[in-house]
Amino acid sequence: MCLIILAYQAIPDYPLIAAANRDEFYSRPARGAHFWPNNPNGKQILAGQDLLAGGTWLGINREGRFAAVTNWRDPSRSEHKPYSRGELPVRFLQSSLTALDYAESLKDSFDNYAGFNLLVGDHNNMVYINNVNCQLQQLNPGIYGLSNGMLDSHWPKVQRGRQRMQTLLDQPDQLSTEALINLMGDRQQADDSALPDTGISIEKERELSPLFIHSRGRNYGTRNSTAVIIQSSGVVRFFEQNFDSSGNPGSTCSHNFSHVSDT
User: Fold this and answer.
1) 178 Cβ contact partners less than 8 Å away, ≥ 6 residues apart
2) Are 33 and 209 in contact (CB under 8 A)?
3) C-alpha to C-alpha distance for 17 and 116, rounded to whole angstroms
4) CB 22 within 8 Å of CB 57
5) Which of 26, 23, 29, 27 is nearest to 58 (CA)?
6) What is this structure's pTM?
7) pLDDT tens, 123-159?
8) What is the distance between the alpha carbons of residues 20 and 242, in angstroms, rounded to a whole number?
9) pLDDT tens digits for range 12-41
10) Residues β-bridged to residue 68
11) Nearest-10 Cα torsion for 247, 253, 256, 261
């Protein structure tokens, strides 16, 4: 997962609205969103699955818990660590720990993972964690953007995504999973003057600057876009749009259900 735009308690009646793009090499095997079988503690997890390492990039469960992870872009940092970042959202969605307690429990194992950003949320809190700056932050109501650097960094895609989310929330009657997927389909590259310096070439910075990425030369791009809407009434709407290696829409996954209490 390389871009998450999150509206947490930003408007009445919608405690969580999330739109996200997963960017990955097209050759990496993965399965689209589905309810995972045989989960510990009887938790029903809805998420895609990385078939190489076994984890996920974003998921929810029947209790209305949310989790998503992105990697940290820094070519000077080692990617060779004992455990996969993708297990972090899964472990939260399978657990009964609060978001705050789960975040606290990770502190002693930060070095076991390559650089990550993690969002975990329950009915009471949304928490941001990264293991690069050893940061744990309980989020206040608002609109947030997370890519492969700090939360709410000044990267063009992060700021553009937050602005587009705000525009959508200013017209709540237009809010839908389809509108969130469209929001994440923006392929406009940023001006060179606005690009961050993350230790990669200017050509790669340009390629990675849009919300939606399609790099034919690198066989890399946005593999799927996901929209999650959780209403205060308990209704959960989930939609995933998958894309092929040409950047064209492919299969979809849609689920609507009412979450059960996790307390």
Assistant:
1) 227, 239
2) no
3) 22
4) yes
5) 23
6) 0.96
7) 999 999 999 999 999 999 999 999 999 999 999 999 9
8) 12
9) 999 999 999 999 999 999 999 999 997 777
10) 58, 119
11) -100
